[in-house]
Amino acid sequence: MGKKVVIVGGNGAGLSAGSQIKRLKPDYQVVVLEKGKYVSYGPCGIPYYLGGIIRNFNRLFSLTPEKIKERNMDLRLFHEVVGVNPEGKKVTVKTEEEIWEESFDYLVIASGANPTLAGMEVEGAKRIFLLRDLIDMQAISRLIEKENPRKCGVLGAGYIAVEMLEAFKSRGLETHLVHRRNSLSKTFEKETSDLIMDKMDKEGIVLNLDTNVKELVEEKNGVTVKTDKGDLEFDFILLAFGIEPNTGFLKDSSLELGVKNSLVVNKKMQTNYDYIYAAGDCAQTTNLITGNPDYVALAPKANKEGLTAGQNICGQPEEFPGVIGTAITRSFDLGVSRTGLSLEEAQKLFPQAIKYTLTTPTKSHYFPGAGDLHSIIIVNKEDQRILGAQLVGPLDAVKRIDLYSTIITSGMNLSQAFDLDFSYGPPFSTLYDPVTTAMRVGKKMVE
Prior knowledge:
Shape: globular
């Protein structure tokens, strides 16, 4: 008889694992425990739904519950796992009606992440929003549609904040950024941050920088954000301070936790129990540049990790080595991407790391539609190895970050990257692609 696999979480990582298991071992029983109403959706699409770009709610889903069940997975909605007994091979499951223990031969923890609250009280609030899932998305959408609010605030300055500022502004709201620093999240270099904020300012986003939030006061028709620079009044606000692993339900277990309380796993996605796996935003990973443990919550990583866990459970050895934090987003029509280390991160391990910047056209100067691509490059002066890159410019141009990801992952130095054989055509790039030009400039910087 086949083994029983219990999966905690019904989104990217969990369903990638489950689908792989049923594909390789059809006789295995796969039970997916999901605490919420929705599964198999694209959380990265949420800002674009709220901004009105994606109008059909159902387009956010990859698989319906019916399709999941057709794959012979036992999907159980509104089933929250509140505890794990690794030694006894059982999870404690809670529904509205009862609490019980579910046994397993293998367990995959794919519980995702939760928004960071930064000490703010939001329990029971009706105008102070988080963006955990589709339920939160629908609540924000209902308020906008029913009450026609005029003014909103976004607290925080990472990817979600950048995307939601655009979304709210696109809905016609007076939109404010409230942030404690004078630049955006530390994941962005200052040059990148300045270009994004310049774009926001031109699009009418009100930037409240160097502003420390002391207290949030919700009233019947609005929210007062009390800061060190005075009170700010909004019809509603969104807290977008970042995310943290959803592992609180494991605090009383003997599962090992690491960076930011994410689950420690090996390259096979096994925890400190070889029959318990973890994947996605609840799992620790390895930074391929530093070799150190890291916490990176990104969709491609989550799905690859789920796939890896599923293969190993089925006896097909597979390893997931880690990531370098490659990400891409936009602010209106300005594309933003990054990979590898920031200068601050790089200099902790590579004292001779330097940063240089350049601006290049994206196409031949005579070809219509060319724009400027701003490149920020981090390089180790000692061995000329590229350690990080950030790009700001036209939406299609910043996808070149994938070239930098490949260069960095391969351990190339400036000369090796300069010699790469890139294509050329006037509609697509300059004779020297912006990446090639960046390598040429870098060589001059380190000589």
